[in-house]
Amino acid sequence: MIIDTIEVQAISSFSRLESLKEVYGLIWVFVPILTLILGITMGVLVIVWLEREISAAIQQRIGPEYAGPLGILQALADGAKLLFKEDLLPSRGDTRLFSVGPSIAVISILLSYLVIPFGYRLVLADLSIGVFLWIAISSIAPIGLLMSGYGSNNKYSFSGGLRAAAQSISYEIPLTLCVLSISLLSNSSSTVDIVEAQSKYGFWGWNLWRQPIGFIVFLISSLAECERLPFDLPEAEEELVAGYQTEYSGIKYGLFYLASYLNLLVSSLFTTVLYLGGWSLSIPELFGINKITEVFGITISIFITLAKAYLFLFISITTRWTLPRMRMDRLLNLGWKFLLPISLGNLLLTTSSQLISL
User: Which is more confidently placed, 280 or 185?
Assistant: First the structure.
């Protein structure tokens, strides 16, 4: 069978076209992920700058002002410094656990951003179990901290890792019960469905007004999950030097620093989605706009989501520089003896109201 030269050229050009389509499709798969990672990085830099400025204002001192305009590049300077510092390993520790621990802490938190909606259809993965996927993934991070403490072969580090695991278990249960109440109220565990259920009734449809007790428990539990003052017992410098990160230096120490702020940002975004209506603020109704362009709508949605999240961040930062650190026994008592019964009661009330409304 003889094939003409023109047919061979047509077949080869068609195969090249198909391969180019596959390459372009592969690139477009990674574009949203890279965009999200870039946005998260910028958000973390802004959080670090905000925390330094707010803490300086609370303590009546001058914050960062030399690195860039208003000191906004100070976080980049600190990151570059940690990147070029020497990476030291403990001579008698478990180097594999020591090296893997920070990566587990960062990756588990980064995966939580997959289910966060920044606008309508502006989410990487709209899963039917979105909020519970976040809880399942976030429970992996303390394992990395425990590995880091054990692999350091240091009693301060190991005590910090044990504290991190105990604190995470204690406050994860009330937080999960609050999320379950929101799911029952919205008849869905999808983050997009939860926001849309709140947007039906505008500002007064936010779960903040329908679940005030759950919001307070969720706020305290999320602060404890982020290990922020007054709940930073795993790295209490007066007792444990620096806790599980005592033996770390260089980029690995920077990963712990990054994980702390990533966790704070993801907690703020989930507070926005679950209780503050997400991207919805009834903007068209407020300004009398009936139809808005798609690009403008997406921009407004992202701006509203981030504005609400940074409002929660302001509360977290102010709390850190206002309240003293708790004792470890009182921290566990707060989680097991107070928040757990309150969250269970809130769940029972929510379930009863849903059954009555059927």
Answer: 185
Q: Is the pTM of this model over 0.90?
A: no
CA-CA distance, 189 to 128, in Å (whole number)?
A: 6
CB-based contacts of 258: which residues, under 8 Å, 6+ apart? Answer: 44, 106
* 312-356 residue pLDDT tens: 898 888 888 888 888 888 888 998 999 999 999 999 999 998 888
**Rounded Cα distance, 157 and 164, in Å:** 11
First to last CA, the chain: 73
Distance between alpha carbon 88 and the CA centroid of its chain, in Å? Answer: 29
Cβ 215 vs Cβ 208: under 8 Å: yes
Q: Are the C-beta atoms of 276 and 238 separated by less than 8 Å?
A: no
Confidence grade of residue 15 (pLDDT, cut at 50, 70, 90) = low
Contact (CB, 8 A) for 317 and 54: yes
Q: Which amino acid is at 286?
A: L
Alpha helices in the chain (DSSP H): 5-58, 74-84, 95-111, 130-138, 141-151, 155-186, 191-199, 207-210, 212-225, 237-240, 250-275, 283-287, 294-320, 328-333, 340-357
Cα separation, 206 vs 277, in Å, equals 5
Separation of alpha carbons 180 and 217, rounded Å = 13
pLDDT of residue 344: 94
Separation CA 298–CA 121 (nearest Å)? 9
- The whole-angstrom separation of Cα 36 and Cα 217 is 29
Burial class for 60, CB neighbours closer than 10 Å (0-12, 13-18, 19+): exposed
Matching residue, tokens 């023109």: 6
